[in-house]
Specification:
This protein has 18 helices and no strands. With 545 residues, it is an all-alpha fold.
Length: 545
């Protein structure tokens, strides 16, 4: 039998003395890079003037969406560029669902390297698309190939982290998924600085920015992928005993479900609806947060007693700056909520945590029209900050919820299938919010009131999510793998009872790690994250100013 290759799962089984706290920074290194998907809108305005530089060269009426894919004579519209954003999340969900099972067998290192090749290679193809002014290359590069990289990178650490932290499942996945939320916080200001540096009188600087960011991301993502280790079968933290199957822990199984069965399990679809409703409500608001604040409060944001439609150009610019600070504040709560709520779910239990999301979220959405009518900016902003923290918390808590219900053996693959709920919500949420706004404006309703009806619709979505969550029960025995099926699955997943049986071929003995190495690994992801938070706080300061 041939020795396992450097990317194979057999090569990453941890030896005695390995420090499990090295795995979260490896996951963060990947998630902080692919999280830039949230920040891609920073490129839309420069790309919409890629040919005209100062002013966009508008396409004629004969050049529609399909024409813009191939035209070299006019600039792309921002609405056309926005399709890349939609593709990111549709491909993220579908690729995670398609290749989740492969990931469980191949291991997180191989999946992480493939993710790096797709995400960074996609950005390189996009750079070529900018250079040749071919939008189809950007759709193929970042939208399709990059979207596949997103899906694989997103789920690559889930199963591994849950196995390393059986005592703190929520906290472990919360740390990694916090990184996905933080990716844009680092990537957006970095992209803005690079575009400013590379811009010339004849070039907007996007192409060079794509190349530089792709190279930086590739180094970080490959380093993260090579930092992954998987525990030996049956490993558990020193001094920790698994919860006994009693009434209090009835929602946490010690058995395992095969990913091929989940499409037919009612509990899977209930949790699918739980995630879809939570995300639809939150994602719809994220996209409209800035215009919502401006239209609802108008001149009062800058101390002027005028409605939005009565403001002059300078005043509109001033309130747009305030609204940008509001958006930055929401992003901080989105990220912080991922770690806070997922960690809290270890204490409360996953089901009760989602009850809090839906009940508290419903009350807050319901309160928004009232605080808007009263002119209370503080209550309005506070409500959305808490709502966005629970939006992020929903993402971070769901992998642990799945591990509790379906077991840990194939939780990465099951999570991949569940992410189709995110892909659905990425279309549903913005459509509801945007079209309701247009419909209300068409009826002649004042701008400051056009979001009221939308808030009540979002409350309805959360009620649906609450009902689905309350219906989740422990699985019947028929859904779990038999001992023989589990043994077969473990063979496919290259699991070993002890690291000593692994043929490493690299002279590796024990995996004992110096605390200095752990500290350096955390610093490598901590410093960029701290810089991103600092840049975001500078924007937030404009809101409070």
């Amino acid at each position: 039998m041939a020795a396992p290759g450097i990317l194979d799962k057999e090569r990453i089984i941890a030896g005695p003395g390995f420090n499990r706290w090295l795995v979260p920074p490896a996951a963060l290194a990947i998630h902080l890079c692919i999280g830039m998907a949230y920040g891609f809108s920073v490129f839309w305005l420069p790309l919409s003037k890629a040919l005209g530089i100062k002013e966009a060269i508008k396409c004629g009426p004969d050049i529609g969406f399909w024409g813009q894919l191939f035209t070299t004579s006019c600039d792309w519209q921002i609405s056309t560029l926005g399709w890349m954003y939609t593709l990111f999340f549709v491909l993220l969900g579908s690729s995670a669902a398609t290749w989740g099972g492969w990931l469980e067998h191949a291991g997180p290192r191989k999946a992480g390297v493939v993710s790096a090749l797709c995400w960074c290679g996609g950005m390189m193809i996009s750079a070529l698309g900018v250079y040749t002014h071919q939008f189809w290359m950007m759709i193929l590069g970042s939208g399709v190939i990059g979207g596949i990289g997103l899906g694989l990178g997103y789920i690559s650490p889930v199963s591994t982290l849950i196995k390393w932290f059986p005592d703190r499942r929520g906290m472990a996945t919360g740390m990694a998924i916090m990184g996905f939320g933080g990716g844009a916080m680092i990537g957006s200001p970095l992209a803005a600085d690079l575009m400013k540096y590379f811009a010339t009188p004849t070039d907007v600087g996007v192409m060079q920015t794509f190349v530089v960011m792709a190279l930086i991301y590739f180094v970080f993502m490959v380093a993260g992928a090579f930092g992954y280790r998987v525990p030996v079968t049956g490993w558990k933290p020193e001094g920790w005993t698994p919860p006994q199957a009693d009434v209090a822990n009835a929602m946490i199984t010690q058995r395992h479900v095969h990913v091929s069965k989940v499409w037919g399990i009612p509990q899977f679809w209930l949790i699918w609806m739980v995630l879809c409703m939570n995300v639809s409500a939150g994602i719809g608001v994220i996209g409209m947060a800035s215009p919502m604040l401006q239209e609802v409060f108008g001149g009062s944001l800058i101390g002027v007693a005028k409605k939005f439609g009565e403001l002059d150009k300078a005043q509109l610019g001033a309130i747009a700056t305030v609204a940008a600070g509001f958006t930055a504040l929401l992003s901080l709560f989105n990220i912080g909520g991922r770690f806070f709520w997922a960690s809290l779910s270890d204490k409360l239990g996953r089901k009760l945590t989602y009850v809090v999301f839906f009940v508290l979220g419903g009350v807050l959405y319901f309160s928004v029209p009232g605080s808007a009518a009263a002119g209370s900016i503080v209550l309005f902003v506070a409500a959305f900050c808490i709502i966005l923290s629970m939006y992020g918390g929903g993402f971070a808590t769901v992998p642990a919820y799945l591990a509790d219900i379906f077991g840990t053996q194939m939780v990465g693959a099951i999570h991949g299938r569940l992410l189709t709920a995110w892909a659905t919500a990425g279309v549903l949420g913005p459509v509801v919010v945007n079209y309701m706004r247009e419909y209300q404006l068409g009826l002649g309703i004042p701008r400051e009131q056009v979001y009221n009806q939308t808030m009540y619709i979002l409350v309805g979505m959360l009620v649906v999510g609450l009902v689905c969550n309350l219906m989740v029960r422990p699985l019947a025995d028929k859904w779990f793998m038999t001992d023989a099926e589990l043994a077969a699955e473990k063979r496919l997943a290259h699991e070993k009872a002890a690291a000593a049986v692994v043929v490493r071929g690299d002279g590796a003995g024990e995996d004992a790690v110096s605390p200095v190495v752990v500290a350096l690994a955390w610093a490598a992801v901590g410093f960029p994250l701290a810089w991103g938070v600092y840049r975001t706080l500078l924007s937030v300061a404009k809101f409070f100013a």
